[in-house]
UniProtKB/TrEMBL annotation:
GO terms for molecular function: CoA-ligase activity. SUPFAM superfamilies: Acetyl-CoA synthetase-like. Coiled coil: none annotated. GO terms for biological process: secondary metabolic process. Residues 520-605 form the AMP-binding enzyme C-terminal domain. It comes from the Eukaryota. InterPro entries: AMP-bd_C (IPR025110), AMP-bd_C_sf (IPR045851), AMP-binding_CS (IPR020845), AMP-dep_synth/lig_dom (IPR000873), ANL_N_sf (IPR042099). Residues 116-469 form the AMP-dependent synthetase/ligase domain. It comes from Rhodotorula graminis (strain WP1). This is AMP-dependent synthetase/ligase domain-containing protein.
Length: 630
């Protein structure tokens, strides 16, 4: 239950005399596989009395935990544990012989003391190999990172430059993208990484991999792809692996050891590497557990990307710690999604708002039996109250929403069990997770505000990130000296401790759960010889329940401003320009507005809130025509 300080809006889930969110020592791997939510475990013992009733029974080693949605291949709880240890052994004492960084390498002046070990980069959609490899890296004590498979070579080159991965795991198509990205790196970094010859690039065959379909999978010999020597990833699963025991961290070492690096877009346009420690990962899951209604024998659809904090925290980690059966889905299409939810008898669905719109409005839903679904969690972007109401009226299913970021894991979650209770929370993101502090401070004075007043949302907790990777200026801007993370979102609390998000200070666009930086798109547009100046903001598409980027363009050729074929050709040339540089979720689906000038301050800063008032010729280059909502 939340405690409220009357002098300021600062909610904490529990009092400070007990640790409501215990954490494990050692690796996050050991914690997640310790079945932490059973009665009598150290986690249970350290949990406050009011939360101890939420427990699980033991997980049988043969219980299916992850299942391939296309082939039906499965990983049992026991096999996943054994195979992850085998991968860990191969990474540290086998094929690659990588070693975690020593504890002595912690330096408070670098990444706020985070110990970043050699990094393994997964460049995969949701699939069984992703699961085993991710847990293998966590077990090894090395550092894991993961990237969206649709990133372009320049976007990947930025990630390679910051994280310098010691190994890559990708697909055959991904190798070509990495090779193009590799050419963009500085020569000394190319020499250091040596992906072409070192044998540190591994492939997953998404269409033909037999992993999970057989007791022992055969790994093909090394081969050459575009001049690079690559191996099938199953070379990391030898038939007779060397014994391996995960490292043991003592004291606060688990709070410094970098377990995972997520990639979060910033207002500057370049992705920032969000460092989460082993302690942060375990604590985030405990928060998810106590804020949820998940229980025994859950069946989940693994659609949210595992490389994204939403899918990682709510599905990938939950599958192991809860013993849930997760059916993976690598790519969304409505019929396949509904078929999968029906056939696996899903009990809980996790998705971004566009799928909530599907459930509310699409006639496709009428042909499927979703009676097994007890609830849904929507995340990654705001979801309108009307859609939640429509889904309940149509299907009798509660959709609960929460709030979180890569930098914080989860932060809040609606926790209602009935529609009558949920109605009282509609429009909010619910109360804070156990062990998470949230404070609202004035955007003008920087001081805490009172209940009902708006201000910037600050979050503090053991599950928060320790630093941005090798980015001291961004870290100093986002994290206060006393460990609060400044979200850049504007919100308020009600008297019950429910958080409402009302605005953004950050100049970010939320496209189906992914962050898009207007500054990044503006830089790309201005790099075109056709463009004199550009400003980017967002428009909202009701039917898709998402924002899309819209670009206001000042062309060199003023004839374009008159419209007609010349304006059409101009806009489509810019469409091709952006598509060649950026991932699909960054494309200008909100259309181009051709204007005489982009509004700016005397200091030259784009006045984004004035863009909507700019008069010009609008050209839609995609079929969708969003409704402006700025």
């Amino acid at each position: 239950m939340a405690s409220l300080e009357t002098s300021a809006v600062r909610f904490e889930s529990l009092s400070s005399d007990i640790s409501p969110v215990p954490h494990s020592s050692n690796t996050a791997f050991e914690f997640l596989f310790s079945q932490p939510f059973r009665k009598g475990t150290p986690t249970w013992e350290a949990t406050s009395k009011e939360l101890q009733s939420h427990t699980l029974g033991p997980i049988h080693p043969e219980k299916p935990i992850f299942r391939d949605g296309k082939t039906g291949a499965t990983l049992s709880y026991g096999r996943l544990y054994r195979d992850a240890l085998t991968v860990a052994s191969s990474l540290t004492d086998g094929h690659l012989a990588l070693q975690p960084a020593p504890a002595s390498s912690s330096n408070p002046r670098v990444n706020r003391g985070a110990i970043v070990s050699p990094t393994i980069l997964l460049h995969l959609p949701n699939c069984l190999p992703f699961v085993t490899l991710a847990y293998g890296v966590l077990a090894s004590g090395l550092t894991l990172t993961a990237a969206n498979p649709v990133l372009t070579p320049p976007e990947l080159a930025h990630i390679l430059t910051l994280s310098e991965p010691a190994a890559l795991v990708t697909t055959a198509a991904g190798v070509a993208t990495f090779q193009a990205a590799f050419k963009l790196l500085a020569p000394d970094l190319q020499a250091k990484l040596s992906y072409a010859t070192r044998g540190n690039v591994f492939l997953v065959n998404l269409d033909g991999d037999d992993y999970g379909a057989s007791a022992a999978s055969l790994a093909p010999l090394e081969r050459n792809v575009g001049g690079w020597t690559v191996h099938d990833w199953k070379v990391l699963l030898p038939a007779t692996p060397k014994p391996f025991s995960p490292p043991r961290y003592t004291g606060s070492e688990d709070a410094l050891r970098a377990a995972m690096i997520f990639w979060s877009s910033g207002t500057s346009g370049k992705s920032k590497g969000v460092i989460l420690t082993h302690r942060a990962i375990g604590s985030a899951l405990i928060g998810v557990w106590h804020a949820s209604t998940l229980g025994e024998d859950e069946r989940l659809v693994g659609l949210p990307p595992f490389y994204h904090i939403f899918g990682w925290a709510n599905v990938l980690m939950a599958g192991v710690a809860l013993g849930a059966t997760v059916t993976t889905m690598g790519k969304f299409d409505p019929v396949s999604y509904l078929t999968m939810a029906q056939e696996c008898r899903a009990t809980h669905l996790h998705f971004s708002p566009p799928i909530a719109v599907l459930l509310a409005k699409s006639p496709l839903v009428n042909g499927f039996d979703l009676s097994s679904v007890r609830g849904c969690t929507s995340g990654g972007a705001p979801l309108g109250t009307s859609i939640i109401e429509e889904v309940y009226r149509r299907l009798g299913i509660l959709i609960k929403i929460g709030y979180g970021l890569s930098e914080t894991g989860g932060a809040t979650q609606q926790q209602s069990m009935t529609w009558d209770d949920l109605k009282k929370q509609l429009g909010s993101c619910g109360p804070a997770y156990p062990g998470t502090e949230i404070m609202i401070r004035s955007t003008e004075t920087g001081k805490p505000v009172t209940v009902g007043e708006e201000g910037e949302i600050l979050i503090r907790g053991v599950s928060c990130a320790i630093s941005y990777l090798n980015n001291p200026s961004a870290t100093a801007e986002a994290f206060t000296p006393d460990m609060w993370f400044c979200t850049g979102d504007v919100g308020k609390f009600d008297t019950q401790g429910n958080l409402y998000i009302t605005d953004r200070l950050k100049e970010l666009i939320k496209v189906k759960g992914f962050q898009v930086s207007p500054a990044e798109l503006e830089d790309s547009l201005c790099a075109s010889p056709l463009v004199q100046d550009a400003g980017v903001t967002s428009v909202y598409h009701d039917d898709h329940a998402t924002e899309y980027p819209r670009a206001y363009i000042m062309p060199f050729d003023k004839e374009v401003l008159k419209g007609g074929k010349k304006a059409h050709d101009f806009a489509h040339a810019l469409r091709q320009h952006i598509e060649g540089k950026h991932s699909p979720y960054k494309w200008i689906r909100g259309g181009f507005v051709l204007v005489e000038a982009v509004p700016k301050s005397p200091a030259g800063k784009i006045l984004r809130r004035m863009l909507k008032d700019c008069k010009g010729h609008e050209v839609q280059v995609y079929e969708e025509k969003p409704r402006a909502k700025l």
